[in-house]
Amino acid sequence: MSKHTTDVLVIGAGPTGVGAAVRLEEAGIDYTVVDSSDRLGGMAASHTDGQGFTWDLGGHVIHSHFKEFDSAVARSGAPMRDVLRNGAVWMRGDDPYSIISTPVQAQLDCWPDDLHPDQPAAHLGEYYRNTFGQKLTTNFFNGYNEKMWTLPLDQIDHSWTSLRSGGNGRNVPQLGLAKDFIPSHETFPYPIGGSGALWSSIVDQLADRDAVTLNCAVEAIEPEKHLAHLSTGDTVDYRHCISSAPVTWLIDSLGWDVADSRLRASTQLAIGFGFSGEPPEALQGKSWIYCPDMSVPWFRATMLSNYDPRNAGEGRWNILLEVTGSNRGDKPGSGTGNIDVERAVEECLTSLTCIGVDRDSAESVWTRRIERGYPIPTLGRDQILKAADAALKSRDIFSRGRFGGWRYESCNQDYSYMQGRQAVDAIFSGSDEEVYWHPERF
C-alpha cells in the first residue's frame, strides 16, 4: 500500500475524464486518472462478445458543437464512417406496418387545433400537450417518454427539451405535416470499431498514457482531507478532483441524505441480438427505431450493423434494444428496476419477429445490466444539484459528466468532453462552465 500525490485526481475515464486529461496535459498540470472499468469510454464504451458482434451500450450519435472536440477527434486518427441519420417509429407492436419515419411530429395528416405553446407547463406531460396537442402526446410522447424515464411525466421537468424534443433549439424538428415532409439526408460520424474506439484513440494521443489507470476504483473519498482511497489499497492525496462518479456518492461523502427523491436514475438492460443473413425490409437502412407502445418492452432499438457492417461481420447483422425498469410493476419496460433478464430477452425477441425477424437465425444474445442508465430530469433536480455543486466546489471537487453532473441535457459525448475541459479551466482560471449549466447556448 502506498500514498500517491497529484495536483488533479480525475475519477472516471469516460468522455468527461478524457476531456479533463487532455486539457490538463495542454496546461502542463500533473494529473492522475482512475477508472473501475477494464476499458475506456464509460457509457460510450464498446464490447465485443464471444461470437464477434460489437455492442455499444446505447444508440450513440457523435454530434459536435465544439471546435475543441473536433480537434480531439481529428488528432486521435480514429477512422470514422458517415452514417445516414434515418430514424423510425414503430407505433403499434401488433402492427408490423405501423413503422413511420422520424420525426413523428412531421407525420401529422392535419394541423392540431388544440396547441397552446405559450402556456406555462408544470411538467413534461403538460409541455408535450401544449406543444404538440393531445393526439400526438397520447399516441407517441406519453408512451415513449414513460418507457425511457420510467416515471409518470408529471414528475419530469421539461427544461431539457430545449435541446432534445420539440423545443426551440436549432437542432430540434418542429411541427410539420406529412405532405410537406422531406426526409433528412443528414449523416453523422461513427467510429469504426464502435464508439469506444474513439475514446481509446484519444487517450492513446496523451503524452503520459501511464497517468490513466483502469481496473482501479475509488472506494471512498474524504473531501475535507483531499484524500481518495483506491481499490488497490493505495491512497491519493490530491489538490483538486474532477469526478464523473455519481454525484449521489459524493453527496453521501458529505454526510447529506442521498435518498432525496429528486435525484433519480433509470435502471437499464441493454439487449443485443446478432443474426445471420440480412435484416428484414422494415429494418434495412434504419439507424434507430423508437417504440411508444407499452406492450413492447424496449423503447429504442439501434441497428448497429447499419452504423458499421463490421459491428456484425460479413453476412450478419445486429440490433441493440434498450429496456428500462421503473416503479409501475414487474414487466420489462415498466418494471421495478429488478428487470427479469430472461423474460425481457424473450419478449424483445418476440417483438422483433413481429416485424419480420427470423428468430432461428439468431447467432448471439448479449445482455448488459446498467444500474444507472439515464439521469432522470425530475422536478426539483437542479436545486439539489446547485446546492451539491457549491458544497463540493468549496472542497475542491468538480462533479461533472453523465452522472457526475446528473443533467441529461448536458451529457452527449461532445458536451461531456467539454465539461471535463471546462472544469479544468474553472479550477485554474476561474472561467465559467457554460456547457454544464447552459448547454442550450451551443
UniProtKB/TrEMBL annotation:
Pfam families: Amino_oxidase
Domain Amine oxidase positions: 17-247
Chain segments annotated as transmembrane: none
Gene3D superfamilies: FAD/NAD(P)-binding domain
Name of this chain's protein: Protoporphyrinogen oxidase
